[in-house]
Design brief:
By secondary structure, the protein is an alpha+beta fold. Helices cover 33% and strands 18% of the residues. A hairpin with a 2-residue loop joins strand 4 and strand 5. Helix 1 packs antiparallel against helix 3 and helix 5 packs antiparallel against helix 7. The protein is globular, with a radius of gyration of 20 Å.
């Protein structure tokens, strides 16, 4: 597995607004394990910063997650040196695909674009690219489970890790505001384009009868229904089932699911697909609410026994996306850790 070590400040303005030149890019990425990457970061932080970043694995902070702009546990980007920022994001990138890392960085970048769109001052601290937090729960030195989180406005990526393997990638939230940049130098930029366009293609390709089954409400809800709950659940009404779709539509739905689990490493993606397929593709349901074209509020969800995907775009004149992937039995490693303890600690 290769590490994507790219300075965060290369992609967007720092708190001070200064951009870093292309020469800051390393010649090539360096392969390392999750534990090695975490330990490398720990040694660089020093005692005071390390205390802000770390908490017990079994404490409440690990499962208290959110995606709104607020203070939260962890060490902020603005409180790190450039090298520490690189190492923090390199660590998270080991749990992500190249596309997932691009989207995670893109969420941070959008804070600067949103600050400009709202006419805020350059030193505004509410829309601030430095207000993204990295946290480690437990110890990557101990040979025991530990957690990793990157979190801030519109991002909450939570990973549970044991022996250099990611046991869980949920909850995994990514949002975008603006969902599609209306003007300025970034006009037309759409961070979560795949999550949007693939869904519109699917819903608009349904027959009239299929759409009646898939459409669960005329108006989209104001946000994802599962919110930031500790545990997610299968939602009602379920929508249209996999077996009621034509083969081409099933392929489209599979591609849409892949857009979400493709945020993670190839190994994690394969594990998630195996769980979904073992539970049975016929158990997958697709539901839609609201408009079926851009510019008006819309919402969809995809779910099965092992997972829930939700997408909502209703705020700011339907130009503000929230999207989430949940492991229904295994968010924060619940199921994997239970199996581990049952097997290794009898």
């Amino acid at each position: 597995m290769k590490t994507l070590i790219i300075p965060i400040c290369l992609f967007f303005s720092c708190v001070c607004g200064k951009a870093y030149p292309q020469s800051k890019l390393p010649a090539k990425a360096t392969a390392r394990t999750l534990e090695q990457a975490a330990q490398d970061l720990f040694f660089d932080l020093g005692k005071e910063k390390l205390a802000k970043m770390t908490a017990p694995f079994d404490g409440e902070q690990r499962t208290e997650w959110h995606f709104v702009p607020k203070d939260r546990f962890g060490l902020r980007l603005k409180d790190m040196t450039q090298t520490q920022q690189e190492k923090a994001f390199a660590l998270v990138s080991l749990c992500l695909s190249k596309d997932g890392a691009r989207k995670a960085k893109g969420v941070v970048e959008l804070e600067a674009i949103l600050r400009e769109a709202e006419g805020r001052a350059i030193n505004d601290t509410y829309r601030d690219t430095g207000n993204f937090y990295f946290a480690v729960f437990g110890s990557p030195f101990a040979g025991k489970p530990w957690g990793l989180r990157m979190e801030g406005h519109h991002v909450s990526l939570n990973f549970t890790i044991l022996n250099n393997h990611v046991l869980s990638a949920g909850p995994g939230f990514l949002g975008a505001n603006p969902a599609r940049v209306a003007d300025g130098p970034h006009k037309g930029h759409q961070l979560l384009k795949g999550e949007t366009d693939l869904a519109f293609t699917l819903v608009n390709g349904l027959s009239e009868q299929q759409r009646k089954t898939a459409m669960v409400a005329e108006k989209a809800p104001s946000d994802i229904i599962s919110g930031n709950k500790r545990r997610a659940w299968q939602l009602d009404p379920p929508g249209i089932g996999w077996a009621s779709l034509q083969p081409a539509q099933q392929r489209q739905l599979r591609t849409l699911i892949d857009e979400y689990i493709g945020r993670y490493t190839r190994l994690m993606k394969d594990i998630l697909w195996k769980e979904i397929e073992t539970a049975g593709l016929d158990s997958i349901r697709f539901a839609w609410a609201g408009a079926t074209s851009w510019g008006q509020g819309h919402y969809y969800r995809i779910q099965g026994p092992t997972f829930l995907i939700e997408y909502d775009n209703t705020q700011n004149n339907a130009n503000h996306v929230h999207s989430v992937f949940r492991e229904l039995k295994n968010d924060f490693g619940d199921d994997a850790l239970k199996r581990h303890y049952d097997t290794d600690h009898r």
